[in-house]
Amino acid sequence: MAGAMTVDGGMVRIDRAMPWVGRLLSLPLLAASGYLLWNVALGLRQDFSGFGRLADDLVPVLVFTGLGLLVGIPGLILLTFRYFVVLNETLRQIVITSQFGPLNIRRHRNLADYHFISITDDYDADLTTYDVNLCGNKGTEPINLMSFTRREEEDKLAGEIGRVLKLPARDYVGTEPDSDDA
Fold first, then answer.
1. Which end of the chain is less crowded, N or C, counting CB atoms within 10 A of the terminal residue's CB?
2. Most confident of 3-7, 156-160, 169-173
């Protein structure tokens, strides 16, 4: 958990790591894309060096290029995906960032809309995960900060975030979820 959260004065940054399985799944996609695009490069080299005609190879070059990009872009996204939340106490704002490669998707929220930190579980008997969420009043979408498989880790994270942001931590583990009608 030490690498998951950094505190710098009134700023808290929580990094949610991509599971290693996702990074591992990106390797076959990138290998297939590399193979297709390498064949395109070899074909173009042959055409431009005078051993073939580009007019004869245009359709295969376009198809292999399209397939290489179609397979390679999801592989690149899986390999470089990062998700982190920055809680800024001094500016009273929350920035949620999803990043893959050079592309950043940021959502800004007002920290004043969030009043407590909730600790919940998923009711799975075999492998329980504990979620630490930043919650506000009814109608405010909660922000999932981190999920853990051990109770001690989520208690430590919730306590530290609560201390920095001066928010209470409420433990809802083992309680029934609220109905949407209430």
1. C
2. 156-160
Task: Name which of 108, 126, 109, 120 is nearest 154 in CA terms.
Answer: 120
Extract the tokens encoding 49: 């060096």
pTM of structure: 0.71
**Of 79, 61, 77, 73, residue with least CA distance to 33:** 73
How far is it, in rounded angstroms, from Cα 5 to Cα 104? 20
Helix (H, G, I), strand (E, B) or coil at 117: strand
| Residue 75 vs residues 72, 99, 141: alpha-carbon distances, Å | 5, 14, 30
